[in-house]
Amino acid sequence: MTSGTGAVQGGALQVKGEVVSLKPVGDYLHLTMTAPGVAERMRPGNFVALSVGGEQSAMLLRRAFSIYRAQASTRGGTVEIVFAEHGKGTRWMTRLAPKDTIDVVGPLGRPFALPKQPVACTLVGGGYGMAPMFSLAERLRARGCSVHMLIGAASESRLFGALEASRAASSVRITTEDGSMGHRGRVTDVLPDLIDKTGSDVVYACGPMPMLQAVSAVADEHGAHSQCAVEETMACGVGVCMTCVLPVRGDDGVIRMVRSCVEGPVFRGDRVLWDDVGTIPDGTLGAANRGARNERSDARDHGRSAP
Amino acid sequence: MTSGTGAVQGGALQVKGEVVSLKPVGDYLHLTMTAPGVAERMRPGNFVALSVGGEQSAMLLRRAFSIYRAQASTRGGTVEIVFAEHGKGTRWMTRLAPKDTIDVVGPLGRPFALPKQPVACTLVGGGYGMAPMFSLAERLRARGCSVHMLIGAASESRLFGALEASRAASSVRITTEDGSMGHRGRVTDVLPDLIDKTGSDVVYACGPMPMLQAVSAVADEHGAHSQCAVEETMACGVGVCMTCVLPVRGDDGVIRMVRSCVEGPVFRGDRVLWDDVGTIPDGTLGAANRGARNERSDARDHGRSAP
Amino acid sequence: MADLTTELAGVRLPNPVMTASGCAAAGQELGQFFDVTELGAIVTKSIMRFPRSGRPTPRMVETPSGMLNSIGLQGPGIDSFLARDLPWLVQRGARPFVSIAGSTVDEFVELTRRVVNSPGVSALEVNISCPNVENRGLVFACDPMQAARVIEAVRPHVPEGLPMFAKLTPDVTSIVDVARAVADAGADGATMINTLLGMAIDPDTLRPILGGVTGGLSGPAIRPVAVRAVYQVHAALPEFPVIGVGGIRTGADALEFVAAGATAVQVGTVIFNDPSAPMRVVRELDSELDRLGIASVEKARGCAHGGVGQ
Amino acid sequence: MADLTTELAGVRLPNPVMTASGCAAAGQELGQFFDVTELGAIVTKSIMRFPRSGRPTPRMVETPSGMLNSIGLQGPGIDSFLARDLPWLVQRGARPFVSIAGSTVDEFVELTRRVVNSPGVSALEVNISCPNVENRGLVFACDPMQAARVIEAVRPHVPEGLPMFAKLTPDVTSIVDVARAVADAGADGATMINTLLGMAIDPDTLRPILGGVTGGLSGPAIRPVAVRAVYQVHAALPEFPVIGVGGIRTGADALEFVAAGATAVQVGTVIFNDPSAPMRVVRELDSELDRLGIASVEKARGCAHGGVGQ
Ligand SMILES: Cc1cc2nc3c(=O)[nH]c(=O)nc-3n(C[C@H](O)[C@H](O)[C@H](O)COP(=O)(O)OP(=O)(O)OC[C@H]3O[C@@H](n4cnc5c(N)ncnc54)[C@H](O)[C@@H]3O)c2cc1C
Ligand SMILES: Cc1cc2nc3c(=O)[nH]c(=O)nc-3n(C[C@H](O)[C@H](O)[C@H](O)COP(=O)(O)OP(=O)(O)OC[C@H]3O[C@@H](n4cnc5c(N)ncnc54)[C@H](O)[C@@H]3O)c2cc1C
Ligand SMILES: Cc1cc2nc3c(=O)[nH]c(=O)nc-3n(C[C@H](O)[C@H](O)[C@H](O)COP(=O)(O)O)c2cc1C
Ligand SMILES: Cc1cc2nc3c(=O)[nH]c(=O)nc-3n(C[C@H](O)[C@H](O)[C@H](O)COP(=O)(O)O)c2cc1C
Ligand code: FES
Ligand code: FES
Do D273 and A61 make contact, defined as CB atoms within 8 angstroms? Predict the structure, then answer.
């Protein structure tokens, strides 16, 4: 099933999976597929990249999804994801049926870093961003950490895993922007208090970029580390194309445009230059000039941009 | 269901059909779909053009298929076709399932011309080329014509409608190239004798180009008219693109490159310049120079060919 | 209901959507699928001076999200076109944009004279993306000077009030240079883009598939190239009307061209996929504008450059 | 089992299939999916003199059967590349084709000097499809003279036995003229094509999607343009080795390029769809040749022109 004899061991696999089930959960869909080998290697925070549209598809690029659950099995493990219908690729995915084949590449990306000590942890998920939090919770509990979950969404139907959370965590807080469930507002309304009360040392977060930025700031202010799983547009998902970069400050203090597919998707929140995502910040290694966002290549001046 | 309010009446429709059934018959597939309005307008020899690959398909062009049967109905008529898996579009079609929607344009093309008198007719079909012959036989019999069928294929599994033919025609002859059923050989081995014995005035034919050419020649020699349904590569199927042309001599004796989708697919066999299909024969109206096939534009000499 | 009316180099159109030349013949066949008078305009297949048989078949190859064609400008010639094809459109009240193609500058002039003297023509599209027999078969629009020569020559013969558009090829190092040349030579606007030169080889015979060896690539595959061309020309010549064409499939695609700076758009190859497409694009364009809360197509024009609407 | 071994401007390769520059980084990541030493060659991402941060995101847009990218040549610079990236390939025994990109002729020369002095390099690919800061940012390969200047300048620094290929852009009026210029200037062959200049506009904001506004179009959508370019150049310069690239997805696609005249081929964008694609293409090319009863890839080369094999 796996491609590439002689390929480097470890790392990601490309396998032909088979859809086991596709079930609605609130506004999302929960897809279970076989993906032999992928399940076995998965660590919380990893993602899979799925090809979409079938054999004669005009959609060339894979779609990335956080792994929700992975179950090893002698008959070939299964991988589960939770996804929202967004554009044309995920629309195609909503029509998958059991036994359909699906090409899976994974597990991809750096997983969440786990604390060495049995500390208290807060896990924050926005919408389908909760998906990777359950396997993370399991690992954390296995290390003796206490796990608190904070689940946010625009409305109740976009909350994912609220029920499961009560089994997975010592405490669960819920926020919705429209107040249809839990606290009316955003996760960051609740987070400061939660960090303090639980004495969390680490905050894990997955969700929209603005949420991650806010979570990272709150964690900072409250003396906690943060581990944020970002979502950048990715062409390859495996580290070869350089489309998925964002500005991150390294251990050496240098800002680099780093690939979120292999050096992420999980980053230390305090290392990401959140305000500068979508730009090349001043001082970035190799930045040709200041404020590159303002110096977009002008099609008037030259025939083409460098590839 | 039909598009285009204010569209010119009559002619072809574009409708969203629904797959009713897809069943194997020998090496072919028999597809039944609803196509409200199309069934009602269909005449033998017409074809439909189906879009393939679904919403995000990289395949832009429709595929053309002779209408096998059309059934009018108050709940929206059905149209049936018989097709061979050939390339990527028909491969996609082999996976259609009941209730799948399919965009249908039809009925298209000029139908078989029917004789004014109740004469004897021979209907020759090669492979799936038999598909349009059954509705034609019905019409002919309704006019008091006697109908004889000659069915040819490479082998038994590629014969279509041999059983049905015995109900539809006064006599049936079968040829296979490998001798797996009927006479070992080609339809044209049997045709001369058949025309003579049945006293056929008209030969109707549908099948591969070389077969049509041979049938047309035999008909000529034996004093019969021939009506041949050709199969040329078509981009639009509705007469707007000029891709589907072949050289045909008009009533005025002038050779023109005519569109097989609207001026065909049925042509008088004696009017088609069979030997010159794929070329612009000398003397064709508007031919710039002699033997155009030999003067293929040379990419060395100029930047582009005229569109 | 956004306001779709479009003022294009002096002609008023109910909406900015047209058929592309060569993808709608002379309009009649598409009348089965929609009312051709409702569309902004019908651009007819490029017509030549004399009847022309075109290239040998095969004339098309399907390619990923596109197709190649090598029709070779088959057509009945201007006399037959004016006598038999054009009247159908005119009688119905459709707005015909007549596309002409010549092998020499004189032929273009002669064609122009004939077309402008025919009643009911709304505009002239001068397809200079075809080979110039007087210049080693090089395509007129591949060279700014040759392109300008054609436009300059036909200009005096085009009456006031009848806009004349030059149809440009993207197969050039700088389409802006060609657009500038035809603008300076007196074109009222440019239609862009024509097809990209491409080819395909038969997987069984390993010989070129097309009878004409090379052919023109069209369809959604080339849309990004077309949008870029329109954007570049609008940036360089903001007052020069551009008709955008290349791979438009939906109203959103049409709006992409408008935002890039196009005053009108044409639907070509996608008609082969969906013969109702041109009017569908009109409806979808309308709902896209509504969705974005933009009152008129005019307000959206050139948005991508950071103008009004942003 | 057809004979896939390929003699490319003096280097012997086990098969004619490579990765395309910028679509395989420096090979290491793809090592997860296949054995990089089995592939004909690994062409590394174009490297520049100094570290380079590239363009702002978004850097890609999916388009019908293709994609746009505006990476802006992000990379670690030649020092880091030679110290950290290249050795991985060399140690394994892969055949690295090192792609270099400069903003000035001097930069190309300096890069060439550095690369040719590094052990284990199999060939040099000179990516001249990038803007020339000394000439109003015009792309070197858009002008035969500028293209030739780069190749002439690096030529003396490339030792015997190390082939040097010029990477050409299709965004020109005549790619044959550019190929001829680089051939005359001493290139051992040409890699074609680089991406086509394109752009896409956001349907919600109506602003350009890419941080770099315009980007390069690649993928199966552009294959017909690439095949045509290879065919034209092989027709004009039959002795000049061409590496064909642009939209190759299958072994049959690769064979199309070979039939058009390519000595080798590269797989680019399709890697993003299928990271195992390069070795799959090798296997499929083999079976296509078997199916057609052609004994070796060399026998198929140039077939489309009516040579051997036909
Ligand atoms: C590491 C990672 C993990 C993710 N996990 C999940 C998840 O668990 N559940 C879920 O529903 N979604 C997840 N996403 C987002 C998901 O990848 C996009 O919703 C999806 O790609 C949209 O595809 P589409 O064809 O429906 O949309 P289109 O807009 O048609 O996609 C066009 C192109 O843009 C890319 N794209 C569009 N939106 C996004 C986005 N938000 N992020 C990245 N690429 C995008 C697509 O991949 C595709 O290449 C994740 C993204 C990343 C990068
Ligand atoms: C008037 C007419 C009636 C037809 N009736 C039937 C029928 O009843 N049953 C049947 O099985 N087939 C019929 N065909 C042939 C059928 O259209 C092709 O087999 C089909 O288009 C192949 O599509 P593909 O995607 O499988 O092949 P591909 O090779 O992938 O097709 C690529 C392109 O080439 C065109 N093409 C390829 N082969 C043919 C061909 N033989 N004729 C026309 N276009 C072709 C396709 O339409 C498509 O645009 C008919 C064709 C015509 C023109
Ligand atoms: C079959 C076909 C024939 C064409 N004939 C012409 C023509 O006669 N004159 C012309 O200016 N353009 C012609 N074109 C080009 C189209 O008008 C249009 O510029 C191009 O196809 C890009 O648009 P599209 O992708 O929407 O088709 C033709 C295109 C096709 C596909
Ligand atoms: C993301 C991306 C990055 C690229 N970077 C480079 C590059 O650095 N140097 C180069 O010569 N070509 C680069 N290219 C162009 C490819 O090498 C190739 O020429 C082009 O994409 C066409 O091939 P394809 O359709 O197989 O991708 C890049 C292409 C893509 C898609
Ligand atoms: S998505 Fe290609 S490098 Fe990250
Ligand atoms: S297929 Fe388009 S004119 Fe016949």
Answer: yes
